[in-house]
Automatic annotation (TrEMBL):
PANTHER family: PTHR47234, SECRETIN_TONB SHORT N-TERMINAL DOMAIN-CONTAINING PROTEIN. The keyword Transmembrane applies. It is a multi-pass membrane protein. The lineage of its organism: Bacteria, Pseudomonadati, Pseudomonadota, Alphaproteobacteria, Acetobacterales. Residues 1-28 form the signal peptide. This is Ferric enterobactin receptor. Residues 324-816 form the TonB-dependent receptor-like beta-barrel domain.
Length: 858
């Protein structure tokens, strides 16, 4: 523990060291940074060194969402000096200023606020609530590739093991990257596995970090969910740069963040049955009164996080540059689970908790990443880049304010705080990239790029403390057993080739191919063809066709768990186990995709930009939840793995369910993206920048696999998770007005309809029968109720004032009118504590949020 405490202190100290030692002037918040150190001679004058940075600042790119001038992109192409609107594939660039004006403190939330193709589920469940998950174009979080300065970012070790659209996800946790470290983000809206490898099916998010060698930026923000009076947050940021000699830099970014729980105003707690007359604000459980809102399951976690980021670079010779990056983050978070009643047939340890209790699932997480590299030119005419990146995520999952009721009944002892599991995921990635520009027959400009990659991936599961899994385990989350534990690794070898041909002045053609070998799942070959033809300087056409893949993660192949609810047990079987095979499981293989996009880029008048792109993504062998088994077969599978089940499983024939990961589906996702922006220069009345971004999206199931036992792998509920839990449309209308020292930002967001197939919960009469399988309708895994979240509009407002060249103040309100999701009817509201559809990626459940922010620039 002592080394961890020292590292956490270092993160805090570094935040304030960057404040103390960084001096000088700083570019405006919209300054463009190159993704590598500025190449200069060691003998160059300061003016010559500064000139490229000034030119880059002038070329700052914030199109579509925030408006502004174009800049050079580095995502989706190996060509140099390519602008976003010149790209053969659609790319959106989000500036740090745009993200800041979202009013959201976390990067994942800011992206969902400002980019229509990215959404988040209403609520995370269990340990999945403790990590950020974004969905792009309606696909799983695992199908989005995240890069930092063009280098693959490692993923979280904390798996979302609960049913739902995020099932099985172990994506990059964006919130572990300091948000004030970011200069801008480039989002590639296309399949790019041929360029970047696994996971780039829905698209690529490339985070470009700050690299100034001078200046100081500080900010503080606080806010709360005003209509509830909880969910209070604060965040402190500081970043600044220093020179390393005459031709180097170091940029340090530090951040401290905290948020309290946000809890929906639940007034329908049914854990103890019906409320007697005269008990409007209390529930009677035997002789004990408890508050009606005691079940706080539908909530956001309490979280405290410290983040540190360091970028550095220096010219070693005139043609060789040394560069690197280090990030570190620590998180402690706690999420409420279902309330346990103090008395009655299903009471849980009334001797220890006479008024009942709400267990807390917690995470203590340490996340590290480090990149070191050398890059240069003139190697047989090639520019080259040699880099090594290590990333690691360490998670300790615990259960607090809990009991092991069966252990207590048998031995008279139970812990109230227990460690349930540990996870570790590490990636070591080594890259060599080469690029050369030349002309064919001295006429056709060509950029050729090729390279290789080796990646070592390691995944470790450590069992929980015995008291967390013995006798059926602790309430809310049973610990992982020694049978669940293990250590696994694999090697990935890859090579790619890319050729960009500028056949005519107005015609560009790009070919890319990539081969990868996985030591556990075999080989993949992927290709991509992109082209763009500019009919005039105001009209351009572009199209791409590619195939891609996503290798099953090591978590999907080896993870298993059991979740214990007040009235149910849900077990995830490891797909490689004999118990899973007995219920129909088979080994996992890579997902395969075929993507096609086509679009038009217009500038009908100077400064008015319009982009329209249609896309289709076919995915086969999707890794999904499948093989749901209930009753005796589920009990037999869990007992075969050494799990002892609690007595509560006898309450219902559907009380025990098991499932596993499987290549169980093929889907087709089709959509339309439209983006437009224009700035009105109104002279003494200031400037008004208007922008619109729209994503229309639909996913259909094209194939439902069959298990080895001959039953469909996906039921109606799982199909809905894949196809309709994501908004059919999302539109963001933004207006930014700047006049004198004032700036006003108004954002209107419309979320389209979502549809889920909901489980019949505890208020469903026990005598009701599912007509499909003849079993109880309550908790049925065959019969479901359709529930629609109708479209919603949200309104956000931020007003800022620049006091002087250094100070800027802002106040804002997101969701001013406190729009919430549609409420569930009683028979679909689990235990009365889940008033909304937790799996819908539509309107957030948190309602109105008010905040204030102070920025200081030196």
């Amino acid at each position: 523990m002592e080394p961890m405490m020292n590292i956490r202190k270092l993160a805090l100290y570094s935040t304030f060291l960057s404040v103390s030692f960084c001096t000088g002037s700083v570019f405006a918040a919209t300054t463009k940074n190159t993704s590598s150190p500025v190449k200069t001679s060691s003998k160059a004058s300061p003016a010559k060194v500064a000139a490229p940075m000034k030119r880059a600042a002038k070329a700052r790119n914030t199109p579509f969402v925030a408006g502004g001038e174009e800049g050079v992109i580095v995502t989706g192409t190996h060509a140099t000096n390519r602008h976003a609107r010149q790209s053969t594939s659609p790319i959106t660039v989000l500036s740090s200023a745009t993200l800041r004006r979202s009013g959201m403190m976390n990067l994942a939330d800011a992206l969902a606020k400002t980019y229509p193709s990215i959404n988040m589920s209403t609520m995370g469940n269990d340990a999945g609530a403790l990590t950020s998950f974004i969905r792009m174009r309606g696909l799983n979080p695992n199908q989005v590739l995240v890069l930092v300065d063009g280098k693959r970012r490692h993923t979280t070790a904390n798996i979302n093991a609960d049913a739902g659209p995020n099932f099985g996800a172990t994506p990059v946790d964006l919130n572990m990257i300091p948000s004030n470290m970011i200069d801008h983000i480039e989002v590639l809206e296309d399949g790019a596995a041929a360029m970047y490898g696994s996971d780039a099916i829905a698209g690529v998010v490339n985070i470009i970090t700050k690299k100034q060698d001078h200046g100081l930026n500080m900010s503080a923000q606080t806010g709360a969910n005003a209509y509830n009076g909880d969910g209070w947050q604060y965040q402190l940021n500081a970043d600044g740069g220093l020179k390393l000699g005459n031709d180097g830099y170091i940029h340090i970014s530090g951040q401290v963040y905290h948020t309290d729980h946000f809890v929906t105003n639940t007034v329908d707690n049914r854990l103890a049955g019906y409320v007697p007359a005269g008990a409007a604000n209390e529930l009677y459980t035997g002789s004990v009164k408890v508050p009606k809102n005691s079940n706080k399951i539908m909530s956001t976690p309490e979280e405290t996080r410290e983040n540190l980021g360091i970028d550095f670079g220096k010219n070693l010779t005139e043609n060789i540059q040394f560069y690197g990056q280090i990030t570190y983050a620590h998180r402690h978070a706690e999420a409420y689970e279902n309330y346990r009643i103090p008395s009655g047939a299903s009471a849980s340890n009334p001797e220890l908790f006479p008024y009942g209790y709400s267990p807390l699932e917690t995470i203590d997480e340490n996340d590290y990443a480090a990149t070191l590299g050398l890059k240069g030119g003139h190697l047989f005419g090639f520019d080259w880049d040699l880099s090594s990146t290590w990333g690691e995520d360490l998670d300790k999952i615990s259960n607090q304010n809990t009991t092991n009721p069966n252990m207590y009944a048998a031995t008279g002892y139970t812990p109230t705080t227990v460690r349930t599991s540990n996870f570790r995921l590490a990636q070591w990635t080594n890259n060599l990239d080469l690029r050369r520009n030349f002309k064919i027959a001295n006429v056709v400009p060509v950029t050729v790029a090729f390279g290789g990659e080796h990646r070592l991936e390691q995944y470790t599961i450590r069992a929980g403390e015995p008291a967390s899994y013995e006798y059926g385990g602790t309430s809310a989350l049973a610990g992982l057993t020694p049978q669940d534990a293990g250590k696994w690794n694999r090697d990935v070898w890859a090579a790619y080739l890319d050729g960009d041909f500028h056949l005519l002045k107005n015609w560009d053609l790009d070919f890319a191919g990539r081969f990868e070998h996985y030591t556990d799942v075999g080989n993949t070959e992927n290709g991509k063809v992109s082209t763009r033809y500019d009919i005039t300087k105001r009209i351009g056409l572009r199209a791409t066709i590619s195939n891609g893949f996503r290798a099953p993660t090591m978590s999907e192949q080896h993870y298993s768990a059991i979740n214990v609810g007040p009235t149910s047990v849900l077990g995830l079987l490891p797909v490689s186990s004999s118990e899973a095979r007995a219920t129909g499981a088979s080994p996992l293989k890579p997902e395969r995709s075929t993507s096609a996009t086509g679009g038009i880029v217009l500038e009908p008048i100077d400064g008015f930009h319009i982009e329209t792109d249609v896309y289709q993504i076919n995915i086969r062998d999707r890794v999904v939840q499948g093989g749901n088994v209930t009753g005796a077969a589920a009990i037999s599978a869990l007992e075969g793995m050494g799990v002892s089940l609690p007595a509560l499983t006898q309450l219902s024939e559907n009380a025990v369910q098991t499932y596993y990961f499987t290549n169980g589906a093929s889907t087709r996702t089709q959509g339309l993206d439209i983006k437009a922006d224009y700035m009105f220069r109104m002279h003494r009345y200031g400037n008004l920048t208007l922008s619109m971004a729209l994503d229309l999206n639909r996913t259909r199931l094209t194939h439902n696999g069959m298990s080895a036992t001959g039953s469909p792998l996906l039921n109606a509920q799982n199909i809905a998770y894949l196809t309709t839990a994501y908004p059919r449309s999302k539109i963001i209308l933004n207006a930014l007005w700047t006049i004198g020292k004032w700036d006003v930002n108004v954002r209107q967001t419309r979320y389209g309809e979502t549809t889920d197939m909901m489980t019949y919960q505890d208020w469903t009469p026990t005598a009701s029968i599912c007509p499909i399988d003849g079993k109880q309708l309550q908790q049925s895994s065959s019969c479901f109720a359709q529930f629609k979240n109708s479209p919603r509009w949200l309104t956000d407002l931020e007003i800022g004032y620049r006091v002087n060249s250094r100070w800027h103040l802002a106040v804002g309100a997101n969701n001013i009118f406190n729009i919430r999701p549609r409420k569930l009817p009683g028979e679909l509201n689990q235990l009365g504590g889940n008033p909304y559809d937790t799996f819908s990626s539509q309107v957030p459940m948190t309602g109105g949020y008010y905040y204030g922010r102070v920025n200081f620039t030196l």
